[in-house]
Amino acid sequence: MSNLVLYGVRKVFRSRRGAPVEAVRRMDLEVRSGELVALLGPSGCGKSTTLRMIAGLEDVTDGDILIGGRSVLGLRPQERNVGVAFENYGLYPPLTVAANLAFGLDARRLGRARERRARIHDVARRIGLLDVLDARPASLSSGQKQRVALGRAIIRAPDVLLLDEPLSRLDAAQRDLTRRELRRLQRELGYTTVLVTHDQEEALSLADRVVVMDEGRVRQVGTPDEVYDDPADVFVAGFVGEPAMNLLPGVLEGGGPVWLSPHVAVPTDIRGAAGDVVLGVRPEDVILVGPDADRSGGVADAVAHVLVVEDLLECTLLTVELPGVERRLVVQTGPGLRAVPGQAVSVAFHRLRTYVFDAKTGERLR
Ligand code: ADP
Ligand code: MG
User: Fold this and answer.
1) What does DSSP assign to residue 181?
2) pLDDT at residue number 294
3) Does ligand 1 have an atom closer than 6 angstroms to the CB of 46?
């Protein structure tokens, strides 16, 4: 297994018509040997372009890409020993599953027919395709097709495995299952892997580390816990997490509180800065305190009005309105909470899990 290093990698698409597009702005990243790193971001942020540059399907405009310590820029895709699986499968319809898998084998090192068959058999067994080796792609389910694409990517034991939205075509139940299998397989085989996804849940559940991207820029690199609990900026804060973090415009006063309106001040530990900010708090970090707590214990930050109550399986989501605050607040509580629209509830913001961002730059203030 090898590590993968991206050093100042940039990609500018130029066309005769229109302005150049800077799809990847300057990316520095090391994927350690055996690690699974997810590139996560909204559509168009440069994830696939990054993957295609690593695979050699796209030239880099600037920078260098190293696999196992050696630059691969001069190498053609077949020479880089990377395994690639894209979301649209890329299977050959007239060929059987076995023949499709064989296409992933290194043409220069095909070996004897018997070895080839053994390798196909081994991969098919690992990813649950033994029963359909003689079938053609048209007769397969979308889950099976995605497995064939994956099998073709791993069959040559690549140094680096590159997966672009590998589970996007599956329905929810299949996706959960395949996700777990993919993780097991990646661990078992120890492949250095880069996985592209726009699905934050997929990134958080699969990856050792997540690279959050936006408009060609890396916003944060961290473990799933780090990007969830310690977002570097307002973009990461809003993109990672479901239901999304509440982001409320406010004014930070010198002494620490953020004023969301003339009636609502949320205490924070931030000193020395003042000005326009965005206050971030996840729905599960807004605490409902007893109706009297604000008077007796002084713990509540505000009394809110309940607008919407959504009973979900594991929790209840409340949409509430804070006095004088335009943006609504979503609160997640345990199941079985009895709240009705129109009711008043006291809310407190979890002090250690309230984030403040500079309104202009989006940077986190600490
Ligand atoms: P993602 O995979 O994150 O959705 P992409 O890497 O596919 O995003 O695209 C990033 C940006 O580069 C987008 O603005 C896209 O329109 C642009 N882009 C991608 N491929 C090309 C191309 N071949 N020519 C011109 N622009 C492209
Ligand atoms: Mg893409």
Assistant:
1) H
2) 44
3) yes
